[in-house]
Every structure is written in structure tokens, then in C-alpha cells.
Target: Glucoamylase
Amino acid sequence: MHFFRSVVGLVSILLSETLAAPSDLRSRDLNSFIAAERAIALQGALNNIGPNGSAVPGAGAGFVVASPSKVNPDYFFTWTRDSALTLKMLIDEFIFGNTALLPTIWGYVHAQAKLQTVSNPSGTFLPAGLGLAEPKYQVDGTRFNGAWGRPQRDGPALRAIALMTFSNWLIDNGQKSTAKTIIWPIISNDLSYVGQYWNQTGFDLWEETLGSSFFTVQNQHRSLVQGAQLAKDLGVTCTGCDQAPELLCFLQSFWNGEYIVSNININNGRTGLDGNSILGSISVFDIDAYCNSPTIQPCNSQALANFKVLMDTFRTTYTINNGIPEGQGIAVGRYGEDVYQGGNPWYLITNAAAEFLYDAVAQWKARHNLIVDETSLAFFKDLYPTVTVRQYNSGNANSPFAQIMNAVTAYADSFVAVAEKYIPADGHLAEQFNRDTGVLLSAVDLTWSYAAFVTMSQRRAGQYPASWGTRNATAPPATCAATSTQGINVVFNVNASTYFGENIYVIGNTDDLGAWDIANSLPLGAGGYTSERPLWSASAYLNAGESVSYKYVRQENCDQPYIYETLNRTLTVPACGSASITEEDAWVGPVGTSGNC
Ligand SMILES: *[C@@H]1O[C@H](CO)[C@@H](O)[C@H](O)[C@H]1NC(C)=O
Ligand SMILES: *[C@@H]1O[C@H](CO)[C@@H](O)[C@H](O)[C@H]1NC(C)=O
Ligand SMILES: *[C@@H]1O[C@H](CO)[C@@H](O)[C@H](O)[C@H]1NC(C)=O
Ligand SMILES: *[C@@H]1O[C@H](CO)[C@@H](O)[C@H](O)[C@H]1NC(C)=O
Ligand SMILES: *[C@@H]1O[C@H](CO)[C@@H](O)[C@H](O)[C@H]1NC(C)=O
Model:
């Protein structure tokens, strides 16, 4: 019935007399399955991206459709979260060597620049960015007006993370100015949003709960740490990134002494045990991180303790998990109280459980040690009964360290084997599989299910994204505070007709505007540029009450000199506590022409 397995099974039978360890046979089997399914999953995700995705005719260029399913459920929309997670996977695949993905990545960049400016039920883009947290749009990038759980504040952070990963590749490959002028303005909008609104509640990744979500806060923190470094590398100012230590402080409050309560600042009668926590830790995975990093990596003791408690819940929740002992992979869903579509295990969370464990093993191996403490002891006991509270240093293949690594890796593989068992012969994934029968159900060809299979496969194959700077992250303050980006949000809008390849900056006498140094001026975005209105815009947080002198500058192509406006403009930033202000300007001075190089 599973075509990959039937071929592999034959090989296994032929080899079974020469290979001693049965585990070798099993892992061989799993390897072949993963290789075949990874290719199907990558293609499955691409099939759902416009304009060329074969499963989503009608989707606009660069838009990731959640699923081709149009009824029960209707997922024929583009979600900011699902799209960003999918693109993060594709960008990593690209960096790992799949160069054919570049046009798809650029399609996403251009689509998101536009999408940020689309007014929607969460709000508008200007002046305060409220529209950025809209969870979903029509597949052509127009607004969706139906009732929904909004706002969802993980979207801007996840999009920024995907775009920053791509920006780092551009910088490493001699395209720093492209990263600065085309991509940074999009990222900057999202980071400003995070800095301003992180301390307000929003809907979680399952779109049901209005509170503070572990997954959201972890990704928001990561986005600001990564943003501060990228801003430094590009010579620009990151508005909002100064909030990172406060987010890290807040992140510590999700731990209740036994497990991670995935949603706080809410009273919904649930335990808070939720796959949210697994997805959070894998999305901030950093191969260079220390296991005691407050970013709560997969190898962190709290994350491991939480993993065990969460898995033990699901062990008794679904019929298909009946009789599977502790320390063996199971089918994993969102949370125990789930009733959506009957409340079933999900492919993407079952594979995320495996990815989490592969991540943890990679981190211990990279650090060459493992520290078992009282918090994580129960997790290890299920896998290596003689474990004690102590430090295990790496050693030879028979060392306790190596044995524990093998046991955790086998545990990870056993989750993939469960997924394999419930993936149909053609390799297609849906959103869920039935808790009693294992038959797939809900949205077919869910893009996120495919993306999750690929990221799990990457980690299992030893493919790790570059560090995002966990070691550089500022430690949280001793006492947490409810804060938000300081300053007054000033929006710079200028009408300036430009040729393709020409860019606009705003420069001025304050540090935020580059102190008249063109290398540190603020790039404007052209996401709102239309044939009716040649709009370039950016927003910046300026010090309340200060007087600013500024002007716009054109950056020409073909190494032609910059063109400055011929006047100095002035603006007085209002006092503290004022709402944001918008400068509406029109270009004054000579214009440029393409050098046609
Ligand atoms: C879509 O297909 C067209 C025509 O083959 C091609 O030029 C374009 O690059 C493709 N777009 C993406 C994002 O792959
Ligand atoms: C805001 O931050 C404070 C300090 O970390 C925290 O106690 C509070 O729960 C946060 N509220 C929200 C909605 O994020
Ligand atoms: C950490 O900070 C150092 C010093 O600023 C910098 O060179 C390095 O690139 C940073 N690492 C990451 C991953 O951002
Ligand atoms: C006017 O702008 C130029 C940069 O074009 C700057 O060097 C100069 O200091 C500005 N003058 C005032 C009075 O702000
Ligand atoms: C910018 O262009 C729009 C559309 O043409 C126009 O309504 C607006 O008045 C212009 N702004 C300025 C400051 O000229």
C-alpha cells in the first residue's frame, strides 16, 4: 500500500541476512521514505504558490495559498503566518543549494511589499501599521472581510524572519544594496510593528484564543534580535529592536514549573499544554545556541520537560496511540481539548515533534555535552533509564553521551515513522488524520504540512540554518516591564515618479535619519506605488518634541551620483503621548534618468 515501503521492504528482505542490527534495517527503510516524501512535500508546497502553482489557479504572483481546498474547510486564502513559514523553508532550501527557488522567493518579496499596504479589517498600513497583523487575505492579495480571529501578531515577526534570512544571503553574495533598498523597508515595517504592539494580546497560531502566545512571543523576540544585527550590517536604524530584552523577559513567564503554558493572559479553561510550544522552539532553533539560553531552544530543560508532559497527554488522547509506551513516537495534535474537525492529530505537529528532537540532538552534539537536571530528568528517563542528574560529555560510540544521543534520535525517528504510517501511498498530506482510524482528513494538500515535512527532513539530514544570534541577545532585565517602542511614529510619504531601479531615501539631521550621512539614511518602500500615485513611504520613531531638518534623496542606477532635493524641509515632532503624524510631501528638485547600463 505504501509504494516507497514496498520497494524498500524488498531490499530489506534481501539484506536481512547480512545485516545484524534490526535498527539498521528500520532506519534504512525510514531514510528511503523520507527522501521520497521530502521531494513530494517540496513540490506540494510549490504547487500552492501563485502564479504558477498547479494546484492554485487564480492565485496572484508570490502568494502562498494555505490549501487548494475550497469547501469544508475553505482554506483558499493566503495567510501571513503560513506563507512566512513556507518561505522560510524555501529560503533555507535555496541557501542549502536549490537555486531554482530564487524566482519564487522574489515573487514573495514583491507580493509582501504590496500586501503590507492593503487596508483590511485589522486596520490600515499608515499611519500606525495596524493592518500588518491581519491574518489572511484573498489569494490575489485583496482584503478578506469576513469575521475572523484578528489581529494575529506573529505574522509580522515571521515575515521579517523569512525576509531577513534572505537578506543575509544577499549580503553574503555581494547584493547588500538590494537588501537595503528593496527588502529592508518591508522588514522595517514589520519590526516597528513588533516593537510597538508586542505587549498587547492577539489571536494565537490556531486563531481561537485571544491572549499572549508562546509561539508568537518567541518569534517576536527572535525577529528583533535578528533585526538589530541586520540593521547594523546595512547601516540603518531598527525601530522597535530595542524591545528585545523585554520580550525575552516576558517569555520566561510561560513556564509554570512543570510545563510551558502556551497561552497566557487568558482564562479559557484549558491546561495550556499545546503543540504551540513545540512549534515555537523549532522556529527559533539556533544551532549555535546554549541550552540554557532564555530563548528556550529545543535542548532547553524546560522545553524537554514540556515535551514529555505534552506527549504523555496525547498518548492517552487518541485511539491510534493506544498502547504506545512512553519514549515511543505517537500521533500529535494541537491540544488535548481540541474539537476542530473532531480534534485529531496533525501531520505538521507530528513531524514538528521529530524536528524538535533532531534539533536538540544537534545542539548537544555541537556543544559536545549534555546537562541533565531535575527539570529534564523525566524526559531522559523514558529513553535511557539509567540516566542521572549530571553533565554528560561527548565520548566514544559507547559512551553514555553517545547512547543518549542515539536514544533521542531513535525517539525522533519514531515520530516520523508514525507520520509515515498515516501518509497515503501517493505521499499527499492533508491537515489532519483521524484520531481513531488514521485516515487523512480536513484540508487537502495543506502547504504548512508540506513545509513542516521539509524542515524536519532538513534537520534530520544535518542541514541547519545559520545562527540568528542567540548568543548576542541581550539578557532579560531582572524585572519585566510593560513597554512599547518609545518615540513618536512619523510617516514620510513622498510622491516621486521613479524609473525601475531608482530608489528613494529620507535623510536628515537626527541619528534616526542618518545625520546627513547618505550611508545611514532611511530607505523608503514602494509597496504603495501605483500608476495613479507614485508613493514612496517609510515610518520612523523620532524623539518627542525635537525639531528635525530633512529631505529626500534619489539613488540612481549605474553608479550615477545621488540626487538631493533642492530644499531643506523641517518638521517638529509632537510631544510625548501624541499619536503618530504623517508628512505628505512631493519631490522638489531635479529627477533622474536610467543610465541603461
Ligand atoms: C512563472 O512562470 C513564468 C513563465 O514560465 C516564469 O517566467 C516565471 O519566472 C514563473 N514565476 C515564478 C515565481 O516561478
Ligand atoms: C506586558 O508585559 C508585562 C511585563 O512582561 C506582562 O506582565 C504582561 O502580561 C504583558 N501583557 C501582554 C498582553 O503582553
Ligand atoms: C554577534 O555579534 C558579533 C559582534 O557584533 C557579530 O560579528 C556577529 O555577526 C553576531 N552574530 C550573529 C549570528 O548575528
Ligand atoms: C540642508 O541640507 C544639507 C544636505 O543636503 C545639509 O548638509 C545642511 O546642513 C542642511 N542645512 C540645514 C540648515 O539643515
Ligand atoms: C500625492 O499624489 C496624490 C495622488 O496624485 C495627491 O492626491 C496628493 O495630493 C499628492 N501629495 C502631494 C503632497 O502633492
Notes: The pocket of 2-acetamido-2-deoxy-beta-D-glucopyranose (ligand 2) is lined by residues 199-201, 212, 249-250, 265, 480-482 (CB under 6 Å).
